[in-house]
Amino acid sequence: MNEHDEKRLTTADMVRMAENRPDGEAEANNKNAAKAVTAQAPALLPGNEVETMRSRWHEIQTGFVDEPRKAVEDADSLVAEAMKRLAEVFSQERSRLEEQWSRGNDVSTEDLRVGLQRYRSFFDRLLSI
Question: Which of 40, 114, 117, 123 qualifies as a FRET site for 91, CA 20 to 30 Å off?
Fold first, then answer.
């Protein structure tokens, strides 16, 4: 058993968590075109996290031949972890901006532009085919 088998997060868990949030909180929270969006888009996670997840994905694919069911369960868990981590990254960025606002500090238009670009990039990736 490895560190990821203890209490696996699943995509179903994420849906249940989102459904249990108050309404305001839940709200807060073509192939060539997809390649172009990804190529131009800023990284959503630090490189070391991306490489770790890619490595785990490779292990999952390799394991499919011997244990297909486990591979699918592991894939679901990995996707859920990636989604959770992405939500954490965006939440941290938003919290940083809100903290500046609450102290009465002005947030530069450039900071807001970069934030909005990251949201747009992520949104475009989610909807790409």
Answer: 40
